Amino acid sequence: MPELYYLGAAGILLLLSMVLQPNARRDFFIALFVAAFGVPVAVASVKLSGTLFAEAYRVDLFSQVFKVILAGGFFLVVSLCTELEGVEERHHLEFYLLLTTSTLAMMLLVSSVELLTIFVALELSSYSLYLLVPLRRGYDTAVEAGIKYLLVGTSASAVMLFGFACLYGVIRTTRFPEIIQVLPAGIGQPLATIGLFLALCGFFFKLALFPFHFWAPGVYQGAANQVAAYIATTSKVAAIAILTRVVSLCGGNGEYMAKVLVALSIASMTLGNLAAIRQRDMKRLLAYSTIAHAGYVLIGILSLSQGGYAGAIFYSLAYLIMKFTCFLVLVKVAYDGSDLQVAQLAGLHRRSPLLAMALMVGLFGLAGIPPTVGFTGKLLVFTAAMERGHFALVLIAMINVVISLYYYLLVVRAAYLLEPDEDLPRILLSVPVTLLLWVLVLVMVAAGIFPTYLLQAADGAARALVGG
Amino acid sequence: MTLYAVIFYVLAAVILVATLLAITRRNLVHAVVYLIISFFGTAMVYYLLGAPFLAALEVIIYAGAIMVLFLFIIMMLRVEKTAERPFSLGQLLPPVFLGLVFLELVGLLAFTDPGGRVVLEAATASPRTFGRFLFQRYWLAVEIVSFLLLIVLIGALFLGRASGRRRPEGTEGDS
Amino acid sequence: MIVPYGHVLMLAGTLFALGVVCTVARRNLVMILLGVEIMLNAAGIAFVAAALRWQRLEGQAFVLFIMAIAAAEVSVGLALIIRAYRRTGSVDEDTYDLLKW
């Protein structure tokens, strides 16, 4: 099982960090090897199913599919760390250790079906990230970002705990299989609804959904580029997974809660898209884009139907790939680990045509232009919502897509049309990175045109969630 | 009104007053001490509500370790007196408003919810029962939390070291 | 026969609200962290009350883990505050405006 593999990997990294002298190249290769090996382990265990630990932990297609996505995300982010200029050299092994721990915790999270286990796994992944953010060389903003991240995160956790307490006070148990039997009937009680909503606040924080979104721009900007990439992609996928699982507890009956989620989704999308327009720093722009996408994914989840959940799962995978591509370009252009400004992208199409094209495809995918996979994802999510009658919501979402197109095009324009003041050198890419870029671009386009394979995976996962 | 009920209301009053005082102090050390009083009250509430083991833990961990850690850091950084005016009106109004709304909600829930009328029966969980329960049902959570504490230990060690000093790279050989 | 469950929940709720006020309205980083501690404690009271209501032990197990997490949070939070203090010389929140909200 992948969790055991990552636990072993974390242990090995821990031992190595205490014993070895820091050496950036060798550390990177160790981490890359560990991460690369994790992906086939995760894929091989997709078909497992069962429950463990007195039904606190459930392995089903839903959780295993997400574990594959998480393993993939982890591998991709580690592959970004070839130079890792942003982190002091003697901290490299701890850096990889914390990333591994966070991935391990997220895998535990997507398999947890019991409130206490969810809480503990969520905290483990969050604390790994709180420790990763300040670990940046030479930037005072990193410590400030770390403090803000920690304070907002622990407050959200406290709110979530109070929600759990309310829920537990109404339903006698903390285990999901039993909650599913009791909650749909009991959702009418005010304590249950408020408890559930407060509990969701913890996950809203991780997903950067309004009203717990305000940490994202600061943290993305302050953290090292690779850490920001990890938080933006893998962490969000885990948040989507657990949010879907918890929301599906309502069993399709939570009309009132769906209304609240609609409001949050609209607020998140609009706020994210409007604020992104004025951003000059690339990472902050991507952070606001993340907030907007949290709103889009929520549309799929709040449809409370199997199709909606499948759409959300598909969207999370698509989002991972697209966001990661943007971050890959960012890391390569800002090779000394600095914060990238949009204006610094000028002349990218001459410095490295491949990077510019990848950026363009990634951004168009985020905007939802056909034939990229981003468009397919949005299509799935919107149709699921319309089947449930949320017409106004979909309309607002489509308006938001148009708004987002504006700032994505600004970035593309900077890469293609602007000329830099001085002559900047060509960016040379090593062979593996070039290969990775081509693969990403191809996947983004191909999965948009022929999504059947991924769709089947998403559907199966959603069915396991609803049926089980 | 049984004796237990009287004790509970007295304790509740103590906790609330102590916490209210704690959050309005300008002197940080005073605030922490009031909070320690509040936590002692909470520990006694736990004992009353049938969790003697948790009451002991609350005193040991919360009042004993966490608050003492706060005191250490406050005294180390010498920030006993903050220069702020704790409650200028503009700052105070939104949170208090939110707090009142929240209170109203909780009050509504507590008094309209049919479950809210349930009177708690006195019962006690002996440490042995609690321990057995914990390790039988929540073994995975225990393991995860121990791992978390290990990671946090390492991380806090890292953050606390080498703070404020900029070293030229490559001079240190240890990790 | 102690008290109605609702009354204990009111206590927990009020305590939680006090914690929220402390976190949101205070400018000093240490006080913000203290506010989070108050919130966690309030959640703990709510859990113990719920556990007694249903005469089950899960709530108490939860409180144990809340305490552990609170301890972890305080260590990391204070370590970060120390680091920030050494860099900038103050723990007033207003000095930390490098990153706009």
Helix content of chain A: over 70%
Q: Please state the CA-atom Rg of chain B, rounded to the nearest Å.
A: 22 Å
Average pLDDT across residues of chain B? 78
Q: Specify the overall morphology of chain B.
A: globular
Order of helices and strands of chain B: HHHHHH
Radius of gyration of chain A: 21 Å
- Derived structural class of chain B: mainly alpha
State the major sheet of chain B.
none
By oligomeric state, this entry counts as heterotrimer
Q: What distance separates the N and C termini of chain A?
A: 20 Å
Question: How many H/I helices of chain B?
Answer: 6
Order of helices and strands of chain A: HHEEHHHHHHHHHHHHHHHHH
How much of the sequence lies in strands of chain A comes to under 5%
Report the span from N to C terminus of chain B.
63 Å
How is this fold's topology laid out?
The complex is a heterotrimer of chains A (468), B (175) and C (101).
Chain A lengths: L1 H18 L4 H21 L5 E3 L4 E3 L1 H19 L12 H20 L3 H18 L7 H31 L5 H11 L3 H18 L8 H7 L2 H23 L7 H22 L5 H21 L3 H28 L14 H4 L1 H15 L5 H15 L3 H26 L14 H19 L2 H16 L1
Antiparallel strand pairs in A: 1-2
Helix pairs in contact in A: 1-2, 1-4, 2-3, 2-4, 3-4, 3-10, 3-13, 3-19, 4-5, 4-10, 5-6, 5-10, 6-8, 6-9, 8-10, 9-10, 9-12, 10-12, 10-13, 11-12, 11-17, 12-13, 12-16, 13-15, 13-16, 13-18, 13-19, 15-17, 15-18, 16-18
Chain B lengths: L2 H21 L4 H21 L3 H26 L11 H24 L14 H11 L1 H22 L15
Chain C lengths: L4 H21 L3 H26 L3 H31 L13
Helix pairs in contact in C: 1-2, 2-3
Features of this protein?
heterotrimer; B: 175 residues; mainly alpha; 6 helices; 71% helix; globular; disordered C terminus; C: 101 residues; Helix Hairpins; 0% strand
Question: What does the model show?
Answer:
- The complex is a heterotrimer of chains A (468), B (175) and C (101).
- With 468 residues, chain A is mainly α.
- Chain A contains 19 helices and two strands.
- Helices cover 75% and strands 1% of the residues of chain A.
- Chain A has a two-stranded antiparallel ribbon.
- The two termini of chain A are 20 Å apart.
- The relative contact order of chain A is 0.10.
- Helices cover 71% and strands 0% of the residues of chain B.
- The C terminus of chain B is likely disordered.
- Chain C has 101 residues and is mainly α.
- Chain C has one domain: Helix Hairpins, CATH 1.10.287.
- Chains in contact: A-B, A-C, B-C.
- The interface between B and C is large, with 89 and 69 residues.
